[in-house]
Amino acid sequence: MRFADGAWHRLHPATPLLRGGLAFVAIAGFVIANLRERLVDFFFRVPQFGDDPIDEIVNHGFVGWALLGVLGVLLAIIAVFTVSWRMHTFRITDDLVEVRSGILLRTHRRARLDRIQGVSISRNLLARIFGAAKLDITVAGNDANVQLAYLGSAATDELRREILTLASGARREATEPVALDQDGAEHPDASASTGARLGGLVNRRVGEFLAPELDPDAAPPESVVRIPLLRLIGSVVLTGFTVVLVMFIIAIAIGLSQGEFWPVLVVLPVILGGGSFYIRRVSRQLRYTIAGTPDGVRVGYGLLSTNNDTLPPGRIHAIGVDQPLLWRPFGWWRVRVNTAGHASRDRQNRENTTVLPVGNGADVRAVLGLILPSFTDAEAQGIIESGMVSRGGDDGFTNAPRRAAWLRPFSWRRTGFREHGSIVLLRRGVLSRDLVVVPLARLQSVALEQGPVHRMLRLASVRMQTVSGPVAAALEVVPADTALALYRRTAADAVEWASVDTSHHWGAS
Amino acid sequence: MPDDETIPTVGPERRLQLDDVEWRRVSPKYLVVAIVGRIVSAVVIGAAAVFLWLVAGWGWIPWVLPVIGVGFLIAIIIEPRRVRSIGYALRADDLVFRRGIMFQRFVAVPYGRMQLVDITRGPVSRVLGLADLRLVTAAAASGVAIPGLPEADAEDLRDRLVSLAETRRAGL
């Protein structure tokens, strides 16, 4: 079945259960189990004879009423969930995605497909067992996401492909509807053939569950970057948090040697919390893959709950490649991006801005090549290389002058910028190194600033202002003349590249 | 890239200058708005200080009050220069804005990047027939606020910017 046919569709029938129905039932069961005696006391107001409540009900001839009450509550819950499910419909037309939901408070949300900033599919453990998936369409703006939870798992992948095809500006191809073997919503003939069908269903579920997170057909294998498990664990352990933890442990050891035991009580929760922090971080990034697909960069991760985000071309506003000091002996780097969708503020999608949690130099080059396909030739490789590891000097970057050492005593040699076609690279930091790549076609504005100290040193700072995110594209110590020239050129180039840039309509011919 | 020395850029007093831009100044009447704002904040801070001195009994307040007073006096004295330093210009493809003497700031916003143009009027501005114009882009940091425009100018400028933004819209 195709969802993107302009007609209204419903979500997966198991949606109410997956969206918290199970939790509700579990909580209600827990409460009732715990409060049974009190509830009985409250409802029947009978003195305690020491008998079982069931006996009391039987004795008083309430069996029918009690059963009826329980049945009524259950029916009401099911009815509300069913009505809510029936009222929750969506449709995808050639240029819009619309969702209608709510029973009393109706909401109707529309998003233009050409404004889509990303499509994310997540499947938590329960949803995977039911063969369902949640589709999040990220649109620019706060709380502007369109969420379709839940859909049939296979149909979701197909739907994402269709949405991205429509968003790419390509015309909808007039092909036959693909007869997908799916188990999505609106499947009337569920009772067709019982035994074989059930067996097939179970087989398919198990197959889906065990399948690699990234469909091998979705991307050419040479474009896929993965993270070895040991490196992932190492990268999570080697953070500032660990340093603090080690200091705490040393403090405890000293305290114990002095015969003081109270620090243990204070710090034990911290250590336990730390352990769960590590496990959460590692498990979230397990089975990480990043791959180039025709419709954008696809980042997937997760072992039990899987998640994958597709960032269509032309949606990335700034790229930050950085190396914390502790990672330096291993040559590991991290790549983060600024995108216009604010899914980064979402609790579950917190890691959305990190496209490479940890990787070596080759991985970084591969990821940058996926994000900036026009920036992969040999010269670009050299620029990235020197941007990442060069110590400064005459390496193609315009670096800060010696007088900048007053403000950047260690890193001034390496603090500089380089322009290359439609891209500006900013390089900073010598202990924890940092490279920022800004595509000029996405630049929102450019600012030039100078305070009194800068003026004394004939320096200025240049800020490339992009949409908000973890990457700040600012260079603090630039010679004033150079900064002015850079400001002028960037302001002009940003307009020019934005006018010729068509990457956000990558499918239009 | 070598330094672009061909453009005369840094002015005689080491100040950043964009020589080829014809800056448009804000209304001189905006000086009144700025000074009234200073006086109001001086009165509020002074009242809070006196309150802390007399009621809460902070004995060192009388020593600090003159410092605050002198600070505000200096701020009011240099206010005319600060107001004169505010400028904007509509170039072919972008709007440039500048302000500040000690802390200079230049911003260039391409027309195609403007998401929103906003006009606000404070109480003092309204009495003087002035309005503030605010430009919003998708980047939170690039917010440009041009204060002290005559109301008619502000509305003209807004309409002009909106139509420019419309013709040059370039995605996000």
Automatic annotation (TrEMBL), chain A:
- Looking at the UniProt entry, the stretches that span the membrane are 17-35, 62-83, 232-255, 261-279
Domain of life, per lineage? Bacteria
Q: Which InterPro entries match?
A: UCP026631, YdbS-like_PH
Alphabetized, the UniProt keywords read: Membrane, Transmembrane, Transmembrane helix
Please indicate if the UniProt record lists Transmembrane as a keyword.
yes
Q: Name one Pfam family in it.
A: bPH_2
Keyword Transcription appears in the UniProt entry: no
Domain YdbS-like PH, residue spans:
85-163, 284-356, 412-488
**What is the protein's given name?**
YdbS-like PH domain-containing protein
From TrEMBL, chain B:
Q: Does the keyword Lipid metabolism apply?
A: no
Q: Matching InterPro entries, A to Z?
A: YdbS-like_PH
Q: Which is an annotated Pfam family here?
A: bPH_2
Which chain regions cross the lipid bilayer?
30-54, 60-78
Q: Keyword Transmembrane, does the record have it?
A: yes
Superkingdom of origin = Bacteria
Keywords associated with the record: Membrane, Transmembrane, Transmembrane helix
Q: Which residues form the YdbS-like PH domain?
A: 84-161
Which PANTHER family does UniProt cross-reference here? TRANSMEMBRANE PROTEIN-RELATED, UPF0699 TRANSMEMBRANE PROTEIN YDBS
The name of this protein is PH domain-containing protein
